[in-house]
Protein 1
Amino acid sequence: MFTGLIADIGEVSALAEDRDGATLQIATWLANELGEGDSIAVDGVCLTATEVGDGGFAAQAMRETLERSALGGLTIGARVNLELPLRAADRLGGHVVQGHVDGIGTVSAIDEQGFARVLRVASEEPGLVRYLVEKGSVAVNGVSLTVSALIESHPPGFEVSLIPETLQRTNLGRLEVGDKVNLEADVLAKHVERLLEART
């Protein structure tokens, strides 16, 4: 489990892809806190460190992961958000993030509003926006954010406002219109829907 508070921006230093999936080599100082078999969120996708060395780690992503997330579009040199799992004694500073991506979004607009940058994201996953509420939580590339507006038109989507701290500490500050991002809705909304379905 994660909180959506990014610890480091890593860099994809090597990438090997075949029909079964891909092996990513990612450079980061967080390797000092990783062991083989540990979980780590890479742009919001929970992966397992298969090798750990000085200054980086390797992780494998199966074909389904590449197809259901924006990891399939990564290239060597790409910058990725990294977060280690939540410890039981840590503060829950963001919201509960599982690292199970619900779908891919596309940045459809960027608007500078004072010191904030407003991102409009269109969801490519039908039905994902129904789990979002204004002032509720959403994870974008693994970053815990507050939904500032819902977009009900086609394609449906939402807006988030990014403060300078978020722009500096995550890869969201490098996004441009047309870029793909990983989206994860609040798991509590999905559980509530499932419980209500069981009652009807």
Protein 2
Amino acid sequence: MPIKPEHLDELLSGYEKPEDLLGEQGLFRQLKKALLERALQTEMTSHLGHDKGSPAAGENVRNGSYPKTVLTEDGPIALEIPRDRAGSFEPAIVPKGVTRLDGFDEKIIAMYARGMSVRDIQAHLAELYGAEVSPDLVSRVTDAVLDEVKDWQSRPLDAVYPVVFFDAMRVKIRDESVVRAKAIYVALALDCEGHKEVLGLWVEQTEGAKFWLRVMNELKNRGVQDIVFAVVDGLKGFPDAITAAFPEATVQTCIVHLVRHSLNFVSWKDRKPIVPALRNIYRAETAELAAEHLDAFEAQWGKKYPAIAPAWRRAWNEVIPFFAYPTEIRRMIYTTNAIESLHRGLRKVIKTRGAFPTDDAAVKLLYLAIRNLDVHWKPAIEWRAAYAQFAIFFPGRLPSIVR
């Protein structure tokens, strides 16, 4: 409803400084309190069927009020909740049992999703809004996200994905009173429109092919019929599990992981010349030329860093598949941008954490972080050119027209 200018002038008649409007006792908070209490009185009138003091009042009439403090996105507000003699009044705008109005829980979840600890959230709310919240309240609010996580984890997926990156991060999780470093795997896909989409999160419970086969079967049960390129980090049993579920998939070792693994052996002063030398390998025009660059790398750096070249050779059969394809397809496979930006975003929210109490707690935080990151993701650069090449090299496996 439009607010008349004369009403605004009346409300602002005593305005002198910002605190008069925005402060703890400012007009905004007073107005919210007054509007809520007036709405409650209107609800009571509708419930009873007559105004206060009406001669037509029946047996059930107003019976005073009781105080209740509710937390809002502007801080706590003390309200007077009307009640009736029969005790049958059920307020709609401030329901019974509700102590937080819309917007407050979202603030807690937003802070939690950005990696703030429970204690930090408590301090932040107390400092900005004067709201005292307990650790149990923060946990209950964020635990409500678990149902959303389950829906997200079981949602239907597209029938085919041109590229899916399977990436892992180590997270400390308490397991039977012992803190263990568990791997949480993320499946990051490029769909047929070039958009990035996280397909799911899985906490590794067992080692080897059984775990990976369970993940692949879950993807199939959610609607995935084909994956063109599955980009993995070279774990034992992973390629076999992928091809068992998706026989036509090409398994490609993740170049990002190989480069990252290689640089773990390198001193900081040598990283500047070694990075371009590694880039020469995976950006070579052919597999043969890539092998020559690897030999040249080993000849130059093998004595100082003897573990790097053998690591590439052990994974060579899964490194070279993408050399058979043009540059447009290769860029979609070995590009570091998609997977690295996701890694940075997730590590940012968990870096200040100690050990998570449960697997669900870790998945909950990572899901919220992914939900925040998703807002900023854009289609892959030069996707249409790459998709045209995909359609040529893999006829019949992809939709012919990008929507």
